[in-house]
């Protein structure tokens, strides 16, 4: 994931401190009681990583079987694969069967809306591909998690009515989170307020993207009592910094849980995805120890297991 990538020299100057809660977060969580059993989902953005063979995938695992192995380690995935083309129902059923046969404690696919809808049509006149997309992903059945709608960098606040009409077109009971990247959604107070009030009114969530070079996207606005965080780490050479950032997220999530936060979707990305399972395991350990989640830790293979366990010691 290259979004928000900065050079190592620039990285030294980044302030990773999480901002204060936004105004909409206070409204969304105002007066809520702590959830009795919050739900936690931690995963990656893709399963097709050859670098994970001999790390979490058994030796000689074929690419066709990567998903079979992925679902043994994680309870969710941020499904970017469906962004590039709308998958047919047969493919969705195939993925579902792999989860059926191999997932240990349930599993959720969290599909990204196709780029035909978001980037080509830019939500205008997108009813036909949207209907097809929704009909096909419905084949996931109980394995369907929230969908997320990622708009391009040039989709700015002047398009808010287009965004609102599109969200109104979607099924009311469809769980959706929206990721926006144009800087003026966040820098202008009027745009910001209008956006998050609209999302709250429609019961749609707001993706928080924590990337080094785009701190404005760490907006800390909750429009529903659920969060969808896309965390972009900077690799093993910046392990201490990334883990400190995870620690701070744990502290903030704990505060939100005390105010009624019900679900946490936390997806790990890195510019080099080779060591993403290591960072994900650190996150799982932190959630289990400090937030009371009961997510199974990742099972690393061979002699690497002991070393990686040492690498993921908690704060």
From TrEMBL:
InterPro entries per UniProt: DUF72 (IPR002763), UPF0759_sf (IPR036520)
Record Pfam families: DUF72
Domain of life per record: Bacteria
Listed name of the protein: DUF72 domain-containing protein
Species in which this protein is naturally found: Pedobacter steynii
């Amino acid at each position: 994931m290259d979004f928000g990538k900065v050079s190592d020299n620039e990285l030294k100057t980044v302030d990773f401190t999480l901002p204060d809660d936004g105004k909409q977060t206070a409204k969304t969580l105002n007066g809520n009681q702590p959830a009795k059993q919050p739900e936690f989902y931690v995963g990656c953005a893709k399963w097709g990583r050859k670098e994970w063979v001999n790390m979490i995938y058994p030796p000689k695992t074929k690419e066709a079987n990567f998903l079979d192995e992925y679902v043994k380690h994680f309870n969710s995935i941020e499904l970017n694969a469906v962004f590039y083309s709308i998958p047919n129902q047969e493919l969705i059923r195939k993925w579902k069967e792999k989860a059926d046969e191999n997932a240990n404690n349930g599993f959720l696919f969290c599909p990204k809306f196709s780029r035909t809808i978001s980037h080509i049509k830019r939500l205008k006149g997108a009813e036909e591909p949207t209907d097809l997309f929704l009909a096909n992903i419905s084949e996931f059945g109980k394995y369907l998690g929230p969908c997320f709608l990622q708009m391009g960098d040039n989709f700015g606040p002047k398009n808010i009515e287009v965004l609102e009409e599109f969200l109104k077109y979607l099924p009311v009971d469809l769980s959706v989170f929206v990721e926006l990247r144009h800087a003026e959604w966040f820098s202008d107070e009027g745009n910001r307020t209008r956006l998050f009030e609209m999302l709250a009114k429609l019961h749609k969530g707001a993706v928080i993207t924590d990337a080094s070079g785009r701190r404005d996207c760490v907006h800390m606005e909750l429009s529903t009592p659920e969060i969808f965080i896309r965390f972009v780490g900077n690799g093993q050479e910046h392990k201490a910094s990334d883990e400190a950032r995870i620690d701070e997220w744990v502290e903030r999530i704990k505060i939100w849980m005390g105010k009624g936060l019900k679900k946490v979707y936390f997806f790990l990305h890195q510019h080099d995805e080779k060591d993403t399972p290591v960072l994900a395991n650190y996150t799982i350990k932190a959630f289990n120890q400090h937030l009371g989640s009961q997510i199974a830790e990742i099972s690393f293979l061979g002699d690497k297991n002991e070393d990686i366990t040492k690498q993921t010691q908690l704060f």
